[in-house]
Design a protein that fits this description.
With 163 residues, this protein is α+β, with helices and mostly antiparallel strands. The protein is 23% helix and 38% strand. One of its GO terms (cellular component) is nucleus.
């Protein structure tokens, strides 16, 4: 039976910058959370196309030598969310898992409300990924973006055409 947990955290990063980083998951996620992931590889397609396949390699300290194949199950650039679904043979703790990461503007617009939702079916009595780990992942994304110049939006000058 599938269960759902969700964690929302306000981040001091503008929504468009956070979303730009999340769309670059294979480059961004291992840099923002190296304690959790060693590498994300695109096996087929691109990271923002439904049906694309990725291989997520976890940091051995986080989950041993685990690698999980996921597919992009849903994606919306306009609504700023992406859903990854693990392939059945991938995760020994879960029969099924879908993770949706979404970004919304926070109350003042200069901050983001990031939500990490997990839909899962455990193996045995395994519980959900911990709320603390989901919060930590979101906060590490924020920390990375606040301490690096990656994914900054460029504003065209008067003489430059906007893209």
């Amino acid at each position: 039976m599938m269960a759902t947990v969700a964690t929302s955290v306000e981040l001091s990063v503008c929504p468009s910058r956070l979303w730009t980083a999340l769309k670059d998951g294979p480059n961004f996620m291992p840099k923002a959370a190296p304690f959790f992931w060693s590498k994300w590889e695109v096996l087929e397609g691109d990271p923002n196309t439904i049906g694309s396949l990725l291989l997520l390699t976890f940091n051995p300290a986080a989950r041993g030598d685990l690698q999980i194949k996921v597919k992009v199950a849903d994606f919306s650039d306009e609504e700023m969310y992406i859903t990854y679904e693990s392939l059945l043979e991938s995760d020994p703790l879960y029969k099924q898992m879908r993770v949706t990461i979404s970004v919304d503007p926070a109350s003042d617009g200069s901050k983001s409300m990031a939500t990490w939702s997990v839909f899962y079916e455990p193996v045995g009595d395994q519980g959900p990924p911990s709320k603390e780990s989901r919060q930590l992942l979101l906060k590490r994304m924020e920390q990375y973006l606040l301490s690096h110049d990656d994914y900054l939006q460029t504003v065209p000058t008067m003489n430059e055409p906007s893209s």
